[in-house]
Amino acid sequence: MEAVVVIAVLVVLVVMTGISRRIGKLEAETKALRAALVRAGVDMGPAPSGPPAASPPPVGPKASDRASAGRTPTPDAEPVAMRASGESDRKSTPATPPPLPSAKQKRRSAADFEKLVGASWSVILGGIAIALGALFLVRYSIEAGLLGPGARIAAGTLFSAALFAAGEWLRRRDRELDLPVFHKADVPGILTGAGAIGAFGTLYAAHALYHFVGPGVAFLGLTVIGIASLLLSSIHGPKLAAIGLLGAYGAPSLVSSGDPNPVALALHTLVVTASVMAVSRIRDWLWLAVGGVVGGCLWAFLIAAVDDPAVPWAGAILLACLAALFAATFGWEKSERPVPLQDRPWDRPGVVSFVLIALVYAEHCLVNAGFPALPAGLAVGAIIVVAAGIWPALSVASGAASLVVLAGAAAIDLPLVHYPGLILDGEGGDAFMPADIGAYVGAIAFLAVPVAALAMGAARRAAATAPRMAGNLAVAGSVIAVFTPVIAYLRISPFETDLLFGTASIAIALLLVLLAELFTRARPGDWSAPAPAAFAVAAIALLSFGLGVSLSATWMPFGFALTAAGIAWVYRARPLAALPYLAIAASLLAALGLWASAPFPGEAIGTTPFLNRLVVIVGLPAAAVLLGGEILRRAGAARTGSIVTAIGLALLAFFVGLELRHWINGGDIIGGHFRLADMAVQTIAALGFSIGLQRVARFTRARVFDLASLVAGGFGAAMSALGLLLVFNPLLTGDSVGEGAVLNMLLPAYLVTAVLAAVVALLARPVRPRWYTLSYALLAGLLAFAYFTLMTRHAFQGERIGLFRSTSDMEFWTYSAVWLVLGAVVLAAGLGLRSLPLRVASAVVIALTVCKVFLLDMTALAGALRAFSFMGLGISLLAIGRFYQRILVRTGNAEPQ
């Protein structure tokens, strides 16, 4: 049986070779005949724009040549041609659009319906009927016991051969008679397809049902039938190609074997994929090429699950060969290669095929312990990059090469792959640590450097005339340059300070800076070119990574902040569009580093107030980020510069807050409770920020400072209203405010904050809404009222002024006197400044005093104090009334009596 199959294979190959030679000869004769007719002055007319099924073409040299050339279908009847999306700009003669059909043409006549039923549906149903009849005949023979297994197999073989022969005879007969080709219902093609299905079924039954042939012969036979169907489809059309595609790729799943052979499976996948791609190129069938990509990658993916020592190298060779096949299918003489290089829309099927290959490579790296990741990755990555560098439509696929390199860097000498249970034994760190660090570093360098160099070299060739293509290749090389050291660091010394990795990363970053400058000169003045931006981004990322792993956590934010300032400085000379965004990223890294490191221990800072290590740890990063933001803003990057400035202002506020906490708590930021003193100094800082930023915004006219003053003012108002008046109010908490009669905690907590709130309201009058200034004026009044009230209680109670302490009659009467004086002073200020809000505030204070005297003093006080309370209130009200009368007379607004 094996000998019969081998002979059949040889016969099929010889026949296919002869058919291919005849097709080429007939095509050449057709072209020569058409050229001769054109030279003779014969008008050949436009190519037919519709399928000839509706009306047969005229019989003549043209139809005869088409039939003799292997019954090539017309373009409209073919599947979609194998072109990438957007390749309409290739050199071709634009086709004249067909005229719109009229209403009469849209209506199907009875004759058209007759043609449809008689010429198309009958053929399709006939093919289905033949297949069903064969199945029913086999079933009947089994049920009736008419034929034995051997006879059934022989009958199936003969029937399939008869269908093949009938299809070929009809095809030759139609060619001799110059009959038109019915593309959707081609009788020879349907007969040949039925024969292919019968051959598949017969061989499968001989193997799976009757065990006449072994797995090897069945596997080889199914493969030969599938490939033969694919080759015959170049003559008989796409239906036979679909049958061959499914049969050839489905053959391994139909054959069961207790001892699978990965080498044979890899060879089968490679041969079938090559056949599929060849037919797809000959007939321009994109769908067939996509099917070949899916089938090839699927079997390459599944072969990794086979438990056999030959799997690693079989998979590696298969992946490299598939990558080369895909490059030849979607690139060679198919994708445009302009000289000089020009950008072209990307070829989606081609790019996706390379991405699938990269993903399958990553799967092999993680599943197969003995997989040769280095040579396989080098071969696959180099093939992808070379294809991306030759054909502009495939340049996006260079990203798949970077994925291959990174997967190899992650999987080379990975103990977790060799010993899957290692991480479960509590040795998580050893699960990723290479056994030989030196060999591992050399291996990933040998993998990453050639692929990255190929990508960057190809990008350099395209930099001047194809910026998008150069950008795609530059991104691939940059991704390799950035993430390969990161992966190596995480595998060797994760999250540790490592000067060697830091130095190497900074050196690579400097090389990328040189590449960015080189690519910038390739297109002078084009600051939006993607390739220099990609190298700049990669350089900054590597520089940040190098600083991060070289410095301790304390110094890391300073390194990121200096990076942000350096980016801004570079932007002045080389205004690449990506640089301001990199400055934002570096500033955010600095801020996140400070946030993750805080709070800082006392031994890392020192005990000296203000002049301590906080200046270096937090102050200098804030200053560097502010400098970078100002440089960007003045260089024209107003929006991004404002964002960097905002981050710098936030860091500056953080620095001031830490310094104040350090000063208040005796050098210990972490220890101790947050009390009134802390809230007071933080509120003063917030209000001071708001005042300072308002002044800066007025002089610079920069929106960022204006918004920052609003934010700082909002924080200051919230801390004043909630923190000072409610949460940390010593009247409610009972905490000590100090023993000093004047210099105690009430002075900064309430009087100073009241003055600052009043200044904010005063400065906000020309630029802020009225509600904003009135809110701050109200806040200032509440803080001032609280200060004088609490100072009065402090004078009688001492350092603790809690609400639940007893109040003497003298203290209670003094509140009335203090409030009257305060109301009078506010009224005088309101009259002097001609401020209605101040006059209203004085009226509120005096009204509050009146209510206290009439409602509280009358019942709580007795004797002379009650009398003095009413007398003082009366004298004050009379004085205020007299004062208002004099003002009315002076202004002429007094009413006549």
Description:
With 897 residues, this protein is mostly helical. It folds into 4 domains: 1-41 and 60-73 and 120-259, no CATH class; 276-501; 677-804; 807-897. It is elongated. The chain has 32 helices and no strands. The model is unreliable at 1-18, 46-98, 100-108, 113-119 and 423-428 (pLDDT under 50). Helix 9 (262-283) runs parallel beside helix 11, helix 20 runs parallel beside helix 23 and helix 26 (703-727) packs parallel to helix 29 (770-797). It starts with a helix and ends in a 6-residue tail after the last helix.
Per-chain topology:
Layout: H1 2-39, H2 61-68, H3 103-106, H4 110-144, H5 149-176, H6 187-209, H7 215-236, H8 238-254, H9 262-283, H10 286-302, H11 311-330, H12 348-367, H13 373-390, H14 398-411, H15 415-418, H16 437-462, H17 467-492, H18 499-522, H19 530-550, H20 556-573, H21 579-597, H22 602-605, H23 614-634, H24 638-664, H25 676-700, H26 703-727, H27 730-733, H28 746-764, H29 770-797, H30 809-832, H31 836-860, H32 864-891
Helix pairs in contact: 1-2, 1-7, 4-6, 5-6, 6-7, 6-8, 7-8, 7-9, 8-9, 8-10, 9-10, 9-11, 10-11, 10-12, 11-12, 11-13, 12-13, 12-14, 13-14, 13-16, 14-16, 14-17, 16-17, 17-18, 17-19, 18-19, 19-20, 20-21, 20-23, 21-23, 21-24, 23-24, 24-25, 24-26, 25-26, 25-28, 26-28, 26-29, 28-29, 29-30, ...
